[in-house]
Amino acid sequence: MDKVRYNPGHLYHLEKQRPVRDKVKFIADAAGENGCALRVGVNCGSVDPDYKDRFADDGIVAMVQCALDHSEILDSIGCRSYVVSLKDSDPMKVIEANRRFADQRPDVPLHLGVTEAGLPPDGVIKTRIAFEQLIARGIGDTLRVSLTVPNERKGEEIAAGRQILDDITRGRFRSVPENLGKSLNIISCPSCSRVENEAFVDLAEKVREVTAYARDHAVTIAVMGCRVNGPGETDDADLGLWCSPTHVNLKRKSETIGTFGYDEVLSRLKSELDRLIASRRTASGAA
Question: pTM of the full predicted structure?
Answer without folding.
Answer: 0.83
